[in-house]
Amino acid sequence: MHKETTVEQTFPRWLLAHARQRPRAPALREKELGIWQTLSWSALAALVRELAHGLAVAGLRRGQHVVVIGENRPRLYASMLAAQSLGAIPVPLYQDAVAAEFVFPLVNAEVAFAVVEDQEQVDKLLEIRPSCPALTHIWFDDPRGLRHYDAPGLAALDALCAQGRAHAARHPDLFEAEVQAGDAGDVAAMFFTSGTTGLPKGVVHTHASLIDRALAGACFDRLSADEEVLAYLPPAWVGQNIFSYAQWLACGYVVNCPESASTVQIDLKEIGPTYYFAPPRIFEALLTSVMIRMEDAGRVKRWLFKHCMALARRVGPALRDGHPVAWPDRWRYRLGDLLIFGPLRNALGFSRVRVAYTAGEAIGPDLFSFYRSIGINLKQLYGSTETAVFVCLQPDHQARADTVGIPIDGVEIRLAESGEILVRSPGLLQGYYRNPQATAEVLDAEGWFHTGDAGFLDADGHLRIIDRARDVGRLAGGAFDGALFAPKYVENKLKFFAYIKEAVAFGDGRDRVCAFINIDLEAVGHWAEREHLPYAGYTDLASRPEVYTLIQDCVQQVNADLARDERLAGSQVSRFLVLHKELDADDGELTRTRKVRRGAIAEKYAVLIDALYAGKTSQYIETAVRFEDGRSGVVAAEVQLADARLYPTLATPAADPFAADTATDADISTRKAA
Asked: At what angle do helices 41-58 and 11-21 cross, to 10 degrees?
């Protein structure tokens, strides 16, 4: 498909091609008041034409930026296409960001035009408008609550469409001429990084880079126009943008937009997507909901679930990968599929899933195996905003929890002597917007992108990611002096447990590993109700001795598992605490994609880290928080600190990919996909 199919040079040209070839085929669906509304390719093209003419009347010109903020909505997608039709550059931003987080992107990109979803986003932009003098036009999709707003330059998208229709009547050839003037090398979009270690950076991508990777991924998984996709993640995240925008236009499949975040699970079951994408935290949340429901089930059903899942973990992945399985186990699995696995897939909304991917961060091996064991073709991929997502993908029947797949068409991978992964592909960023220094730090003279991830290629050509290169460290002193410390690996194993929502591990340069734990309020609250344990909110529940015992058992199970790996046995958690508040992006502790801001957390909670390593049993702390309504406050608590059992190393020594004497020569390690 990648090499044989006619490839349009820009996204607006893909749109017009679909509108010509299959005008009545559905392009987008949106759920409104419980009813799915369908927009065909011809209707979408007409809408984009109106919006493009309206934007032209407003003064949008080639090369300018248009901010787009909101959930996945057809008219926001159409606005992005309209901007690209004029040669302008859409810049999607996270809809759940606080107003202050919009200032840097708007000022950095000199944004004059914004298209937003609703009153909430309008309020944010009006709040920061004095700090963004270039912002002159704001259009909104949903008019509810905005009837009496009278800000300069504020108008509804309906009004923009009306202006566009009038302008198109006077200039009927403008839209097609502007679309044909576009080129593959033009900038198609700019995505701001999550800012894990500092200010976000604007990643500039061309039509060529995004379309090439979209087609490469589609070819790899044999995607077609028959796929159904549910678009429920933030459009500002490049992963969602690739799956529900770039590949959508390249393949012509249907993208479905949920009514709201609260209806996603219902909408998932109604649509039954065939192609699904989610970060590990979504799969963690789904598994937590399953476990909570099973705890409420009757004794017979719990026994049957436990028995069937034991069988699934033993033979399910082998069956999924096409490996031979003895006929008695194969028969038992079919019976389990009839009684448990099939209904479970249906309850999760995965009955029709042909290909499911997870990415964004490493997924815990136990979590990964759970989904594959019940018959879901869950695979991992490797990529980033800078690489247009698709670098490595796992082929069907070769999905493993400890790898992220093989380099796909057009990708070269090279390993630096430090273990850092270098990538060269047609999907690389053009650069960071107005930041040549940062660009030079990640793109070298030979065109290699320095990912910042540490890993290695195994004997089968699969890429294994250990952790972020800057996070991988060594213990210093103690029983595991010099042992490898991979915090993300430890954190993911902890988060497999339904009771643990988030974890942050510390240990680099120290004599042992300690961890912060965020409990999952729903799962632990449900457990507390069954145990007749009263509580008055998260902080109260997190401090309960019974909860510490519950979490201690989870930590010790992880330690027992780590002890089986010679390289990572030193990463066992010796002490832990349950944080008195949930980590929150609004408090600067997580990025908008819910990645841990390790440095910020270490600085903010330094007193708790010091107390863990000092052997204290408790520590008082006051923490500033921001509430959903914008108010600020303080959460104070006497946090308890607990010990966890450590286990002796059980495995035989394994090769250390980061040891100096095993470093792979960079020239030898270069591999290219066939």
From this structure: 140
267's CB contacts (< 8 A; 6+ apart) are 31, 230, 232, 256, 258, 259
Q: Residue 30: is its pLDDT beyond 80?
A: yes
- What is the Cα–Cα distance from 77 to 44, expressed in whole angstroms? 10
- Pairing of the two strands 65-69 and 89-93: parallel
Q: What is the 3 state secondary structure string of 127-154?
A: HHHHHCCCCCEEEECCCCCCCCCCCCCE
pLDDT at 292: 81
Tell me which residue of 193, 184, 329, 345 sits closest to 273, measured CA to CA. 345
User: Partners of 295 in the beta sheet?
Assistant: none
Report pTM: 0.81
For residue range 451-471, list pLDDT tens digits in order: 998 888 888 899 988 777 777
Residue 656 pLDDT: 46
Q: Quote the CA–CA distance of 223 and 245 in Å, as a whole number.
A: 14
Check if the beta carbon of residue 472 is closer than 8 Å to that of residue 483.
Answer: no
Stated length of the chain: 674
CB 89 within 8 A of CB 190: yes
In order of 29, 44, 85, 252, the CA distances from 180 in angstroms are: 28, 18, 9, 20
Place of tokens 């987008």: 28
Three-state SS at 138:
strand
CA dihedral 158, 159, 165, 167 (to 10 degrees): -150
Q: What is the pLDDT of residues 513-524, one digit of tens each?
A: 999 999 999 889
The domains found in the chain, sorted by start residue, are 11-269 (3.40.50.12780), 473-643 (3.30.300.30)
pLDDT in the model for residue 502: 93
- Residue 670: which pLDDT band, with cuts at 50, 70 and 90? very low
- Residue 668: partners with Cβ closer than 8 Å, 6 or more residues away: none
> Which phi and psi angles does 93 have, rounded to 5°?
-120, 160
Give the closest residue to 141 by CA, choosing from 69, 234, 232. Answer: 69
Strand 473-474 and strand 484-485: pairing?
antiparallel
Place of tokens 């998208």: 157
Edge-to-edge strand list for the sheet holding 35-40: 35-40, 26-32, 254-257, 228-230
Please give the Cα distance from 285 to 572 (Å, whole number): 25
Nearest to 420 by CA among 398, 438, 444: 444
Compute how many other C-beta atoms are within 10 angstroms of the C-beta atom of residue 56.
Answer: 22
CA dist 431 and 428 (Å) reads 8
Mean pLDDT, the chain, integer: 90
Give the pairing type, strands 431-432 and 420-424. Answer: unpaired
CA separation, residue 176 to residues 13, 78, 603 (Å): 9, 16, 54
pLDDT average, residue stretch 544-562: 95
Question: What are the angstrom distances between the C-alpha of 167 and each of 43, 45, 47, 160?
Answer: 18, 16, 14, 10
Give 12's strand partners.
none
Does the structure show a pLDDT above 50 at 198?
yes
Q: What's the pLDDT band for 143 if we cut at 50, 70, 90?
A: very high
